[in-house]
Amino acid sequence: MDPFQVPYILVILLVLAVGVLYLYWANREKLTGREKRRMGLSVLAILSFYSIIGGLIFREDSPLGYILVGIGLGLALIDIYLGMSSRRGR
């Protein structure tokens, strides 16, 4: 692993950790026993997932892998922001 890849990997791990904490926070009603209606994945979440998977497939062969992972993380952050802002408006 090259030294310039370490900050990139740390940012990815940080974003994933924030995503896991968000999922836990969003599903805490299920964990406490209160019912909540089930929500499916948004279009942005699906595009983010496929971009990250594509980035993992093309990882070190070209810069395309890093670009796809970056796009996927960006889409995931936008999806999280839109989800949180729509809940505040209720």
Helix fraction, binned, reads: over 70%
What percent strand? under 5%
What is the CA–CA distance across the termini? 46 Å
Number of strands: 0
Largest sheet data: none
User: Helix segment count?
Assistant: 4
Structural class call reads mainly alpha
Radius of gyration: 16 Å
What count of structural domains? 1
Summarize the structure.
By secondary structure, this protein is mainly alpha-helical. The protein contains four helices and no strands.
Please describe the structure with a list of short key phrases separated by commas or semicolons.
mainly alpha, 4 helices, 76% helix
Describe the fold and architecture.
It is a single chain. The protein is an all-alpha fold. It has one domain. Helices cover 76% and strands 0% of the residues.
Topology:
Layout: H1 5-26, H2 28-32, H3 43-57, H4 63-88
Helix pairs in contact: 3-4
